[in-house]
Amino acid sequence: MAAAKANRLASAALRARRTAPSATDASPSVESSTRGGTGVCSATARRTGSSSAGPAFARPPPRTTRSGSRTVAAAAIPRPEPSEYVPYYETYISQVPKGNLLKVLEDQRRETQELLADLSEARALHRYAPGKWSIKEVVGHLMDTERVFCYRALGFGRADENPLPGFDEKAWVPAGRFDARSLKDLAAEFDAVRRATIALFSGFDSDALARRGTANNNPITVRALAWIIAGHERHHVAILRERYLA
CATH: 3.50.50.100, 3.40.50.2000, 1.20.120.450, 3.50.50.60. Which one for 64-244? Predict the structure, then answer.
């Protein structure tokens, strides 16, 4: 009887080994399940360095320089010629220092975040004169403008010849209801906007940067838009320091 029981146990073990699933029968991982989909997960993994991005998505890393704790692409964005924008924008472009514009944009991101981090909620509602924007509204205006100019750069950089409309900042700011939000929330959103701006312009090659289109009935190049973004923030941050926080 003992021998028969042993034989039955050995047979059961053999059947279990035959029916057990192999490694290839297992459910697909996140990596394999996203390859045929939208690519959002794999794209995020590439940006963050996650191991979930497989070899099929590997790309050579861009040349980079180190700025503080963040790595900034070293691709050059040449200062635009006056023929690449209408004279009005010289007000902003002339305020941008020489050098690597991507590094300028990153330095601005860090410095502006440090500036906003020191402000209380009450101070962020300050207006230096009746009818002027509050500090929160200035931050909201910077975000709105940067997004608009980035969309223009994206369209023109992709060789889209459709003209784009202007926008009324005086109407947009009240509609944004920025004073109803916390400064911490606004600062975090502005940080995300700037990081997206740097990523966008880091991805343009020299041909894309030189392309031009029409926005608000005026011709402009992609690289001019990048320099205007930097100059526009520099202009408003200077006003914050001189008229709101002095």
Answer: 1.20.120.450
